[in-house]
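Lecture 7 notes: from sequence to structure.
We start with the chain below.
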Amino acid sequence: MLRGAVPLGRIAGVRIYAHWSLVATLGLIASLLATAILPQEVSGYSTVEYWLTGIVTATLFLVSLAAHELAHSIVALRHGVAVERITLWLLGGMSELSDEPPDPRADLRIAIVGPLTSFAIGFASLGLAYGIHSVAGSLFTAAIAWLGSVNVILAIFNLLPGAPLDGGRVLRAILWRRSGDRLRAMTSAARSGRVLGMGLILIGLAEALMLGSLGGLWLMLLGWFLRTAANVELMNASMRHKLGDAKVEEAMTTSPVVAPADWTVEHFLRATVSGSHHRLFPVVDGQGLPNGVVSLADLSRVPPESRSTTSVGSIARALPAPAYAHRDDLLATVATKVILRPGLDLVAVVDDSRLTGIVTATDLVHACDRTALGLYVRRRSSNLSPQWPPPEEQGQ
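Predicted structure tokens for the same chain:
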């Protein structure tokens, strides 16, 4: 999930979040509607009415984006695919699914329902605008017509055949159905997305340079996002290919050295860090439950004079929900949900809510290297003895 997103509530059991950048989208669309898109030559309307119409129409557009994403999520749930959340942000919306679709048919249905929803909203709005144009004010009619038109355009754009657009998912489902190879289909859709993203960047650049249009900058930003997202999909496909059916327990570091949240930084440095070659430590509470992570870089930012009064828990970084896993989870699935920066991030492997191991960037690279060589992934163990409970508490 994007950082800075705030919860809006639940619809059909799906959590809806809004990123702060959505405010910029709302303001930009409302401004364009009030000052340029809605017919300015119509008399009898005040500036306030134009702006109110622009704000309401822009809000309805964001609601239609949420409906588009909600359609994806509802169909995903019906096919047994868990949904983490929907996040609305600067460039639209994202449905974050916890699992992959079980088969090509489910993949196709989940992908196509979003554009179909946008088409339905678009044509319904255009029909409404046509039906009321003779009895309603021209400003209101123009706003409804714009809402319908932009939803139809949104549906068509989303059907372009390149991941991560819905059309890329449709392409993946079709290729998966034909070949029976999900990874090959995923790779083809992602490569198509890279080409599409570069095409939008070039078109936007030409528009900005030749026409001096700000719309060109928007196209360049959208193309950059698509190309970046497509590269991530390619990386994920490569990782899934390398890791195959390896489980988390095969790659995790067992008996990890932990950082008790209630210890002071000074105590932790003297008791554990001084004799350890590790750079990263899961933070646990009094019951041994992992709730954060702390690195040597985090510890180094605490001034020496404050280390005796600063607890490890107060400087720990919280673990996001995808950073918790079970030993029998597929390693590739877990790895594609989190970003593991070397020396900064980890996945906490839990069993009955107790920490049993961790997966770091080093563990993941080690697993990829071994599977690429056709070797069985072996569990890695800390070369230090288990540190939970803390040594001074053992035997009490």
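Points to note: The chain has a mean pLDDT of 86. The chain is about 55% helix and 15% strand.
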